[in-house]
Amino acid sequence: MWRALFYFIQLAILVFAAVWLARRPGTVVVEWLGQRIETHVGILILAVLVFAAVIALLYRLWRALYWAPKAAGRKLEENRRRKGYKALTQGMVAVAAGDPDEARRQSKKADVLLNEPPLTMLLSAQAAQLNGDEAAAERYFDAMLENPETRFLGLRGLLNQALKRGDDEAALGHLREAYKLRPNTPWVLENLSAVSERLGSYDEAERTLREAQRHRALPKPEAEHRRAEVLLQRARGRAERGRPDLAMKDAKQALKLEPDLAPAAVFLAQRHAASGGTGRALKVLERTWTRKPDPELAEAARQLLKDEAPLEVYKKVQKLVAG
Fold first, then answer.
1. Lower CB density within 10 Å: C or N end of the chain?
2. Can you tell me the distance from the alpha carbon of 77 to that of 71, in angstroms, rounded to the nearest whole number?
């Protein structure tokens, strides 16, 4: 509607101009270089308009010829990138389908067409893994570390390689680097806590589990259970190194997180007994038993009372199991 209205306005202006000129006839005389040209005003205006139209047409022709090679180049580049992205997509599909030959073929094709290593290195690495060439896959993942855009993906690939071959030391190094880049990523927190625990780095494992719980990377019950297990391991290590005070503190914290954790209760009871607090030790066992009976608790109580008279042992153990 608006286009039609604009067209009619233009037409009205042209008609008005033609009528205006027709009612005001006149002549124009031009003298230049000894030549005299005399014509009507309307003809002069028409000549000027025709000249302007010819100039505009020539300009557009020149512009089209000037930009034609660049436009053709852009078109070719667009087609090349479109084919490259198609190869990249098909390569990813081949990886998902477990087709190593197709994945390798498409990764090479995408690499040639796109010439953008950050986009194709991950596909190349995955294709190498499917073909069983772990060394080549690791080289691709290492190369990805050089580019900030792909560094995190490269670290994840190297982590998986390290875990696959059972190299926890290397895995821990990759996880620490990944944690620096993205500290809230669930798989980073979960793996960092697990590998740290396996290597005996209990401070780091416990701290990471707290982060995982805070960022909901792990369900709260699972995070608290794992923290309790880590604290118990740290408590045992501290006890072996002659730090009974810190060991007891860790054991108490473990029981606070998971009150029915029998091994933590037994350990804490043994710590109390070692410092002469047999009564406190039995209370710890009794409190844990009421939450969740466990034969380990009863055996720990029997060991604590082994020097007492059989009748006393029987009475106290009965009291324990009776809750």
1. N
2. 10
Q: What is the pLDDT of residue 311?
A: 47
Q: Are 251 and 268 in contact (CB under 8 A)?
A: yes
Q: How many residues does the chain have?
A: 323
The H or E element that residue 27 is part of is strand 27-32
218: tokens are: 């792990």
Q: Supply 55's token pair.
A: 């100039």
Could you tell me the sign of the dihedral formed by the alpha carbons of 216, 218, 219, 220, in that order?
negative
| pTM given for the model | 0.63
Closest CA to 226 of 200, 257, 267: 257
| Measured distance CA(94)–CA(97) in Å, rounded | 5
- Mean pLDDT per 10-residue interval, the chain, length 323 residues: 70 64 64 69 70 80 72 66 66 62 69 64 74 81 83 88 91 93 89 92 92 88 92 92 90 92 91 84 86 85 68 56 56
The residue to which tokens 């209760």 are assigned: 265
Tokens of 80: 């090349």
Cα angle at 98 between 93 and 100, to 5 degrees?
Answer: 95
DSSP 89-113: HHHHHHHHHT-HHHHHHHHHHHHHH
CA distances from residue 8 to 16, 49, 108, 118, 179 in whole angstroms, order as listed: 12, 20, 59, 56, 68
Q: How crowded is residue 128: how many other Cβ atoms within 10 Å of its Cβ?
A: 22
CA distance 315 to 297: 15
Residue 237 CB-density burial (10 A; 0-12 exposed, 13-18 middle, 19+ buried): middle
**How many C-beta neighbours within 10 Å does residue 110 have?**
25
| CB 131, CB 94: distance < 8 Å | no
CB 90 within 8 A of CB 104: no
User: What is the amino acid identity at position 272?
Assistant: H
